[in-house]
Specification:
Elements lengths: L10 E5 L2 E12 L2 E13 L8 H20 L8 H14 L4 H19 L9 H13 L4 H20 L28 H9 L3 H12 L6
Antiparallel strand pairs: 1-2, 2-3
GO molecular function: DNA binding
Keywords: DNA-binding
Protein name: Core-binding (CB) domain-containing protein
Length: 221
């Protein structure tokens, strides 16, 4: 049986009570590709919750190496989100929209998305990063409806990135959930009894005005 590419890369070793997985990955530094050694904790090899080397290798392969294989077939994923937006998404998706939609999208990109996520590589943005970003918008006082609009723009960006091979895998917005919007309390009309009770508490010269407003349809609030 053919071995998966991820099994030919990386190394697994013990580091104290834990399994440590390591690999080399390419980064763009000052416009040049630089290979960097990276390591990550996979699980415990001693004590409660310890796992075997075979299980540690399986987790390492499935959670990290397989994803590296997937991204290695799409070198465009090394560009940052800001670079993709400037070079592809804005000219090919935003600028062709109507003026109102174009202005609102550009405002969202410049005020929220690029300042917070623009420095990250496309391949490094996942559900966790998007969830934290959107939560930070809510914590800053933005309405759920506004944050929902930001999420929709992010979804549009990564959908287009998948089409152009700048992103691989599921959309990072797919499993992010936002608080449900509470519908505004509906204002009701005064009942006949409420109108008469209200008019009865007014001075005689004001009662006619209250009754007139009741006939023309006053609302509570």
């Amino acid at each position: 049986m053919a071995r998966r590419r991820g099994q030919d890369r990386g190394w697994l070793r013990k580091c104290g009570p834990s399994w440590l997985g390591g690999w080399r990955e390419d980064f763009i530094v000052d416009g040049k590709i630089k290979r960097v050694k990276i390591s990550r904790l996979i699980g415990r090899c001693k004590g409660p919750g310890a796992i075997s080397k075979r299980e540690a290798r399986r987790r390492f392969t499935e959670t990290i190496l397989d994803k590296l294989d997937k991204f290695s077939t799409h070198p465009q994923t090394m560009c940052t989100l800001a670079e993709f937006i400037r070079q592809r998404y804005e000219p090919e998706c935003v600028l062709v929209r109507k003026k109102s939609g174009r202005r609102s999208t550009q405002s969202c990109l410049e005020r929220h998305i690029i300042p917070e996520l623009g420095h990250l590589r496309m391949r490094d943005i996942g559900v966790v990063e998007v969830s934290r970003f959107l939560t930070s918008r809510l914590n800053k006082g933005l309405a759920p409806l506004t944050v929902g609009g930001i999420k929709n723009i992010l979804s549009s960006i990564f959908t287009y990135a998948k089409r152009t091979d700048h992103y691989a895998g599921e959309l990072p917005t797919a499993y992010v959930r936002l608080p449900e919007m509470t519908p505004a309390k509906r204002r009701g009309s005064l009942t006949f009894e409420q109108v008469w009770a209200l008019a009865g508490r007014q001075r005689p010269r004001d009662r006619a005005l209250v009754l007139f407003l009741a006939i023309t349809g006053p609302r509570i609030g």
